[in-house]
């Protein structure tokens, strides 16, 4: 059984892997990820609950801004459709199109970083 710190380190490493992943996930790999997420859902939930009580470090903030930049570009490509409604092949095609826009993702992420930092700090301000 991993400690929570080890779990967070693995999670951060996985985030980096996903960000740096050049090839598209195959159907088998997607299904394996799905099963893994389903199996570890309660561990992930508890870890998220604990992590909410801490301020995020710079790497975590960068990872969040990267993810939201990717999501923003994905939403533009999808034009109102849900990614979950698409077939695995269509998702892979969209992932490919998003990955081609790496420079734009980096620019957007850099622009979003201060807002993400501000939002993270706002969590801990007293509401009084």
SSE series: HHHHHH
- Helix-strand makeup class: mainly alpha
Mean pLDDT: 85
| Percent helix range | over 70%
Question: Can you tell me the overall shape?
Answer: globular
Strand content: under 5%
Low-confidence stretches: none
The number of distinct β-strands equals 0
| Overall structural domain count | 1
Which radius of gyration do the C-alpha atoms yield? 16 Å
Distance between the termini: 40 Å
Largest sheet report: none
The total count of helices amounts to 6
Verbal overview:
It is a single chain. With 128 residues, the protein is mostly helical. It has one domain. It contains 6 helices and no strands. Helix 1 packs across helix 4 and helix 4 crosses helix 5. The longest helix is centred in the middle third of the chain and has 21 residues. The radius of gyration is 16 Å and the shape is globular.
List strands and helices in order, with pairings.
Blueprint: H1 4-20, H2 27-39, H3 41-51, H4 58-78, H5 88-99, H6 102-122
Helix pairs in contact: 1-4, 4-5, 4-6
Protein traits:
128 residues; mainly alpha; 6 helices
